[in-house]
Design goal:
Chain A is mostly beta strands. Helices cover 9% and strands 33% of the residues of chain A. Chain A has one helix at residues 21-34; strands spanning 37-41, 48-49, 55-56, 61-62, 66-69, 72-81, 94-101, 108-111, 125-130, 141-146. Chain A is globular and about 70 Å long. Chain B has 13 helices and 11 strands. Chain B has a 9-stranded mixed beta sheet with strand order 3-2-4-7-1-8-11-10-9. A two-stranded antiparallel sheet of chain B has the order 5-6. In chain B, helix 4 (83-95) packs across helix 13 and helix 7 (154-168) crosses helix 11 (281-290). Classes of the chains: A mainly beta, B alpha/beta. The complex binds zinc ion.
């Protein structure tokens, strides 16, 4: 018997209110109120985490000292994205970078902007551009732009 | 020590939009595996399902398909992750002393959700998710780091794509059966630089199942088992920015564990066939290194040499790999099934002659955070 296929459209949209933790709150408040990037350090391996971590995964101990870092860094990797994915609210193409903030031990995922896609290179020096309106989220950094000069 | 063997395998054809429900897919794969093993569901002591709530669009997605997996009056448990980890859990249960036989079944319908939004949801909701990264854009970041650190080129990635898509032509279960050229790959649409359309695996639907047995359980089955000779699994850092994206140390650890157990000294020589998780073309080169098939930083040289082609020293992905069908969660189990078929000599026109020892590999998490490795043999 031939049966017509029926499809059911759904969309799951559930609100959440995620506590970012004391460590995360401190990091986001510094972005929001002072346009500053802070990291913290593992007392054992001395790694500096940005965003900060409550514990060091490798040493399995609580992190210790907070450090104010520069708002500059180096591009460790990047990609130029040519498709809309419904999440990144930016005009195409979107450039993502893994940016090693000066003084950090690893890199931070963020947007790269104010630059032509073909000009982006690994090793490029970039500086955080802060959003005009800041609300205590990672988007308080609007993007990273090439350091001038 | 008690051993576990694979006594039955079954899988659906992988397609973009299958006209089957989740339960129908699970039933098809499970009953095919039972038929392959020459038994009915009464031969099965316990069941492992593999599913993910985000992909299915419902919570406790495992519960919705348990009847279709034959769990009536049977013990059932679930893995949320790649099917290779379902096989691992199944093996542990088989060897636990509580059960002699285990059915492991994985399903997904990638076409019914939204791959980009679902994979975006694997990232940290506070620091990363709003930025919009997904499986493809982060894979592109990894591909770029790999090129920078090893000198591999987009053309090397294209070679993987050409090889695996070409192999897929002979696999009746593959979704994309396409003879393509380096030029086709290089000129395909830009997705996330340096990845182009043919560097990326497709969106797929399907299900796969295997049946595992102890030696004691073997008398229930018709076929000779393919033995699990070695197994290893390991996971790396969740945060991409704090992981060496050009060196899969978790795969290295997993592979070495499996090799030690299986008595493999030189994997390139000792293995006859490898099925690995090439969700994106460049991954195959990276996994060559993690699996110890190529020295660190030299994955590109192995593809260039032709050693991993169908007529090479160690054919990799005769099935066409994940590039030819990417049912997420199912894909690792599909690798293990292809490895089993190869060892049995049942791989049809894509059979590697005389294959006795095979390796199957699966991954989980962004950019291959976790790895599972099986070495199997007759
Ligand atoms: Zn530490």
């Amino acid at each position: 018997m031939d049966v017509q296929n029926i499809y059911y459209d759904g969309r799951i949209k559930i609100p959440y209110t995620w506590y970012v933790g004391e460590t995360g709150s401190r990091f986001l408040i510094a972005l929001r109120d002072n346009k500053e990037i802070w990291g913290n350090q593992c007392p054992q391996c001395k790694k500096v985490f940005v965003p900060p971590m409550k514990t060091c995964g490798e040493c399995f101990v609580p992190t210790g000292e907070w450090l104010k870092l520069a708002d500059t860094g180096t591009v460790e990797s990047f990609t130029v994205v040519h498709y809309e994915n419904g999440v990144a609210k930016r005009p195409l193409p979107v450039i993502y970078g893994l940016i090693k903030i000066d003084g950090a031990s690893g890199s931070l995922l963020h947007f790269i902007g104010d630059v032509k896609p073909e000009k982006v290179k690994i090793g490029m020096r970039v500086k955080a551009v802060f959003a005009e309106k800041r609300g205590g989220t990672i988007l308080d950094i609007s993007h990273f732009a090439p350091v001038k000069g | 020590m008690e051993r576990a063997g694979i006594v039955g395998v079954g899988q659906t054809v992988y397609e973009r939009r299958k006209e089957d429900t989740f339960a129908e897919l699970v039933f098809e794969a499970s009953t095919k595996a039972l038929a392959d093993a020459g038994v009915g569901i009464e031969a099965i002591d316990n069941i492992i399902t593999v599913s993910n709530d985000f992909w299915d669009g419902r919570t406790i997605s495992s519960m919705a398909i348990q009847d279709a997996a034959g769990s009536w009056d049977r013990d059932i448990s679930t893995v949320e992750g790649d099917g290779i980890f379902g096989a691992l859990y199944g093996m542990m249960r088989t060897l636990s002393g509580s059960f002699d036989t285990t059915l492991v079944v994985a399903h997904v319908k990638g076409s019914e959700g939204n791959m980009n939004m679902i994979t975006n949801s694997m990232f940290d909701p506070i620091y990363q998710r709003h930025l919009g990264p997904d499986a493809t854009s982060t894979a592109a970041l990894q591909a770029r780091v790999y090129m920078e650190k090893t000198g591999a080129t987009e053309k090397d990635f294209a070679k993987v794509s050409v090889k695996n898509h070409g192999n897929g032509v002979k696999n009746p279960f593959a979704q994309i059966k396409k003879k393509i050229t380096i030029k086709d790959v290089m000129e395909s649409r830009k997705i996330a630089d340096p990845l182009k359309l043919y560097d990326c695996s497709p969106i797929s639907d399907g299900a796969a199942a295997i049946i595992l047995s102890t030696e004691k359980g073997l008398k229930r089955f018709k076929k000779d088992p393919v033995w699990i000779l070695g197994v290893g699994h390991c996971s790396d850092s969740y945060n991409l920015g704090y992981r060496d994206l050009a060196w899969p140390r978790a795969l290295d650890a997993a592979a070495q564990k499996a090799y030690k157990m299986a008595g493999i000294k030189n994997p390139l020589k000792d293995l006859d066939v490898v099925e690995l998780y090439d969700a994106y073309s460049y991954m195959e080169l990276l996994w060559y290194e993690g699996l110890g098939l190529a020295p660190r930083g030299k994955g590109a040289e192995l593809i260039r040499s032709g050693a991993t082609g169908m007529k090479g020293e160690l054919p990799v992905n005769p099935s066409g790999g994940v590039l030819s069908a990417h049912p997420v969660l199912v894909a690792g189990l599909a690798r293990l099934i292809e490895a089993t078929l190869q060892v049995r000599g049942e791989a049809g026109t894509r059979q590697i002659k005389g294959a006795k020892k095979a390796l199957a590999h699966g991954i989980n998490g962004p950019c291959g955070q976790a790895h599972g490795v099986f070495v199997i043999g007759a």
